[in-house]
Amino acid sequence: MKLTLKTLPLAISVAILPIQAIADDQTNNKIAQLEQQVQSLQASQTASLTERITFNGFMTGAFITSDNNAGYAGATTSANFDDGSKFGLQGTFAISDQTKAVMQLMMKGENNWDVEAEWAYVSHTFENGLQARAGKLRLPLFMYSDYLDVGYAQIFVRPPEDVYGPVPFTSYTGADVSYDIEFDDSTLTFQAYGGKSDAFGVDLKNILGINATWTDETWTLRGLYGEGSLDGTMTRQSTTSAGIDPSTGLPIYLEVTVPLLVLDEEKGQFSAIGGSYDNGSFLAIAEWTRIDVEGVFRNTDSGYLTLGYRIETFTPYVTASFYETTDDDLRQIVDQTSAVYAAIFNGERKSYSAGLRWDAIDNLAVKFDVTYSTDFGDTSGGLKSNVAQEFDDTTVYTVQFDVVF
Amino acid sequence: MKKLISILALSVCSMMSAQAAVVVIGAPGAADISASDAKKLFLGKGSKSAVVYELDEGNATRSEFHSSVTGKSDSQLKAFWSKQVFTGKGNPPATVSNAAAMKSAVASNPNAIGYIDEADVDASIKVILKP
Questions:
Q1: How far is residue A162's CA from residue A372's CA, in Å, rounded to a whole number?
Q2: For residue A145, what is the nearest residue in chain B, using CA coordinates?
Q3: Which residue range(s) make up the domain with A237?
Q4: Source organism's superkingdom (chain A) (predicted)?
Q5: CATH class of the domain whose range is B20-129
Q6: In this structure, is residue A238 part of a structural domain?
Q7: Residues of B with Cβ-Cβ distance to A104 under 8 angstroms
Q8: Does a structural domain hold residue A9?
Q9: Which residues contact A71 (CB under 8 A, 6 or more apart)?
Q10: Among candidates A123, A185, A217 on the partner chain, residue whose Cβ is nearest the Cβ of B43
């Protein structure tokens, strides 16, 4: 008995020790678990905040020069940094899982670096997958329209001028709906849109369009039809001689803006087909467009084919493209006005580019391009600066860097 | 002799594991997916409920994964996502810095999907596709 009593505390303490140890372990585990939970909660909270608002940007710096002043892609004989250079900043705010607001501000050298919103819209995705957007949107006429200014996402220095150059309308105010149909290996997207736009004092009203794009990420095929009406007074810059400077004996020229053509709800139709193939090393891109506008204003056909091949970080490419007005017979020269119309609107040219994209470092691509444009026929080549038909051809040199961040 | 054979066998094994392929992983209960589903998910298409994780840019496993699943090189992938971002179509997936972080991210979420080197596979996750 004595023995038992004596040994009891010992026995108890021996018995308690492991329990305490287990309890300590459990507490430690619990604390560790709680710490983990707090950490992951904090992480998800900061994640949800940073996921809600995102900022992205892109920039293009381009030096463009030409062997003459025909004005292809805005190039002149003096090397200039402004014409092809641009800076874009985009903010995306996720209002909810289905709704977001997007604003993309652009500053372009050719617009004196004025800040302009190219995208500013609210988008909502419905339960059935239909996406609707309203606000200021890109006019989706071409394959590259939606990211026209994001040089980093393109192979070439600029989307081919013969196809993209003649259309001054790049964004519109209105709304669109789009719907993706997912197949096993591919996606078919339908988009319909409507709204209005303006450029150079001419309104493009009652825009309505539909396009369909199918892609399996190797092949992409796209078709589009759109229409709208042109309304407003077209003007043009004209240089008139104002006599001779008596002190220098040199002629004086004055730049004046003169009305050219009054467009009164002239209906226009735009149709385009395009396709691309990119298997990771070989790539091909082609687009063909047709624009028909009522009245004196030019109707055009244009198209291009680009082929490229990736060798490590280098992608050499070649492009062949054409542009031609298809209604020259509507502008018979009978008097001075019709002669001006014919000189300004009639145009044809073929262009050939050879270029290289070099993915120099992460987020930065450097590009070199030489484009030769020729076969103007008896026209200006469709180049505003060549209405006097001073030049028969032109060669444009571009060195460019594209960045995304 | 037996020792030599086992050393040889071991070195062959280790060589094979060094060349182990990238595998797509999900949480332990996740169902297998097809190669085309994986391609869509990692290009921001398909199921909207999926939570996709990528390894950081510049990671060799990431480059290997994309060359076999999406067919895009690092710079092509970058160009693809800049197109998606600036057309408002989507943002690139969240990134984690290594295989351990990838496994813990995927293991804790039944909708999560990621990829690791086959050599890093353990019981915390399930291999749902061997591309």
A1: 12
A2: B87
A3: 53-404
A4: Bacteria
A5: alpha beta
A6: yes
A7: 86
A8: no
A9: A383, A384, A385, A386, A394
A10: A217
